[in-house]
Amino acid sequence: MSTARAVVLALHGLGHDEATARAMFEPALSPGMVMETLAGRFESPTGAGGGRLWFQVDFADGRPAAGPRLDQEAASRAAIIERAIAIRRRIGDTPLILLGFGQGGVVALTALIERPELFTACGIASGRLLEPAIKALPIVPRHCGKPVFWAHGRNDPIIGHELAQQGQATLGRYAMTITAFDHDGGHELPDAVIASLRMWLSDRVASEGS
Fold first, then answer.
1. Mind listing the pLDDT tens digit for each residue in 106-160?
2. What are the residues facing 7 on neighbouring strands?
3. pTM of the full structure
4. Ramachandran region of residue 55, left (φ > 0), alpha (ψ -120 to 50) or beta?
5. Are 14 and 43 in contact (CB under 8 A)?
6. Can you name the residues that pair with 42 across neighbouring β-strands?
7. Which residues are 104's β-sheet partners?
8. Is the predicted pLDDT of residue 48 greater than 60, yes or no?
9. Any idea what the Cα angle at residue 198 is, between residues 189 and 15, rounded to 5°?
10. Contact indicator for 133, 155 with CB cutoff of 8 Å
11. In whole angstroms, what is the distance from residue 139 CA to residue 173 CA?
12. In which band, very low, low, confident or very high, does the pLDDT at 95 lie, cut at 50, 70 and 90?
């Protein structure tokens, strides 16, 4: 049985790696929270700056275009769920919280929707909901009230703020409890988001322990 107050599984963004995810999200953790990371299954294409990705997607005018590789997203989601199952076996009822930035936030949300019973909560920043990937995933009672923290920049040049609003509206159909944090930045995780995420994580852990 785990002695941690909570385990956080952090997922990096497109072209990043596990070290990036740790550096990005670790400041949001309170004492007693333990972070684990997972690398994207696929290499970034040559010339794309290196790093890892969860699924290939073409860009037009700097933004994701239509036609993401849904087969790759499904494979990445399966790997995240497999890791979560292994963690859950190890930690029992200790809170397990999924965090993701950018494309990591995309696959975090689809993993949460597919297997809500594995995760205590999910927090994302600068992500979107990949609606074609969730069409086959039914709404189930365990979705109801599941806490989701969603931070997004109003000036995000890569994943527009309107996509965050659309994704949050879709999650509303699952009756999840959404905490939206909009900021005036772009595709980033500013200090104000870290501070709010830290409070949100502490609240989630405290509510699980009460």
1. 999 999 999 999 999 999 999 999 999 999 899 999 999 999 999 999 999 999 9
2. 34, 96
3. 0.93
4. beta
5. no
6. 53
7. none
8. no
9. 30
10. no
11. 8
12. very high
